[in-house]
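Need the bound structure for flavin-adenine dinucleotide, inputs here:
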Amino acid sequence: MARKKSPNHQQEGQQPEEGRRNFLKQSTLLTALAVTPPSLLKAAELRWDEKAASYFEKVPLALEINGKAQQLSVEPRVTLLDLLREHLAQTGTKKGCDHGQCGACTVHVDGKRVLSCLSLAVTLEGKKVTTIEGLSTGDQLHPMQEAFIKHDGFQCGYCTPGQIMSGVGCIREGHANSEEEIREYMSGNICRCGAYPNIVKAIAEVKKGGQKV
Amino acid sequence: MINFGYTRVTTPKAAVEALVKNSNAQWLAGGTNLVDLMKKGVIVPQNLIDINNLPLKEIKKDNGKLHIGALALNSDVAENDLVRQQQPLLSLALQAGASQQIRNMATIGGNMMQRTRCSYFYNPDMPCNKREPGTGCGALKGFNRMHAIFGTSEKCIAVHPSDMCIALVALDATVLITGPKGERRISFQNFHRLPGDAPQRDNTLERGELITGIEIPDNAFKDHFHYLKIRDRTSYAFALVSVAAAVSLQGDTIQDVRLAMGGVAHKPWRLVEAENFLKGKSASEANFRQAAAVAMKGAQGFGHNNFKLKLAPNTLVEALKTATGKA
Ligand SMILES: Cc1cc2nc3c(=O)[nH]c(=O)nc-3n(C[C@H](O)[C@H](O)[C@H](O)COP(=O)(O)OP(=O)(O)OC[C@H]3O[C@@H](n4cnc5c(N)ncnc54)[C@H](O)[C@@H]3O)c2cc1C
Ligand code: SF4
Ligand code: FES
Ligand code: FES
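Answer from helper R.:
Posting the output first, comments after.
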């Protein structure tokens, strides 16, 4: 296997998911190996391609998403984030880094905030998932959504669903008692636009309002 | 991510059997490290064995010792009343790690087993003896700002990334294990290993050995302790250098002290000689400085990380000052 000695060692997500899928579809073509990521080459070396069929086996999965029971069948490699966005068309939850570093994909599982990009959907059998789409009831915005609007807590809005889910978590956990504490407990949510001061204000206000979130 | 087989197990015995049966399987706990590494193609398991349903989540007091199950979540342990009362240093170190979303997923066992964050290890296109033994070490002459200054070998200069483990080594924890040959215990000090000639091995577990929990003996460090983590931004980043300091004082005299450093070695780095130097001495900045000099014996930089040779002793002094109320 040729080894690239390029110095650009810190690239993130340099292997487009789309490319991999295409490869997997045509994995009998050995010529394709020359252009595939090393991880796939390794799989081929270990002759897993011969057994590939068994790894595409779908696993039955029952879980509740935003109050609605779902009976699904998913491949083990599908993350909760991809399940939501690509299989269930719930695109409120955003994909930022896809590696646990930005918080854009934050959702609640059984009431706790977690990262959907690092959660494999198959591990969530029997659990309750809440996304930004399920936070409000009917047409009524959730108090945290209202507060984000009031305090101008977003600019481009890309990080906002994750910020809101995380902000609700922050209050529920009892970690919103000072601006300093809010900042620390919101540190897993990165905002490229730098809307932090207003996000902190929004969360502090909801906390002060004492409403049940 | 390449697809894989998926199995759920509900007993430690079944977990061990499933792993032994399949040479290319991995246990999946919170997944915050494993799924990330699988997405990057660094680890490519053929099967995942989901251990989240094992009954190993309990936090309890057992014969005066604090017992924490391997599948207890980092956030639950950090905020547990018993942990806060008995081992507040552990709570502090846990809270300094990752973000709350990740702590809500990450387990104690997974935290101990997490792989290094060396960027060469994380990139399958780069040489790395830890990922692929025999390919060389990209960091040795490369960009090694995050790397080790103690206990390195020419095969690997990576650092162990966990914050929790720095507190656990200082607190003399014991790791509880079950495996194909039955149960055993390893002192935390001997759990992680130095790279030597086999950097691919992070710790002394044998294949098929499952961590079931940890035990921490009671101690006299509940009043004077600190975990100081220095990183590139004020929160949510891995440590450049961190220090766990726990002191028991009588008046101004140090009765007992435990010191460990993170971000400086392939394993949580306990500073026994500095501890011995401080025992029986007064808690003064001058003594802390001397202890730091003792602690730094044998340290070696690799270029980009030379700044750690100054940062580490300073961090130690600051941690001791805060722990003893001299800050
Ligand atoms: C963006 C980001 C930032 C982070 N920042 C920090 C930080 O600042 N400080 C810090 O300390 N950590 C940090 N982490 C790391 C995080 O704490 C670890 O990923 C986590 O603790 C791993 O636990 P897990 O349960 O998710 O393990 P998994 O990812 O499920 O497993 C990790 C490994 O442990 C093995 N394993 C799991 N449980 C057991 C067991 N009981 N017995 C034997 N083997 C087992 C698995 O097979 C796997 O090989 C960060 C992670 C991310 C993604
Ligand atoms: S320091 Fe260790 S982990 Fe990093 S490239 Fe070298 S061998 Fe690999
Ligand atoms: S997309 Fe999940 S943390 Fe960035
Ligand atoms: S509002 Fe643009 S990323 Fe946060």
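Comments: Strands of chain A lie at 59-65, 68-74, 106-109, 112-115, 128-130. Confidence is low (pLDDT under 50) at residues 1-41, 46-55 of chain A.
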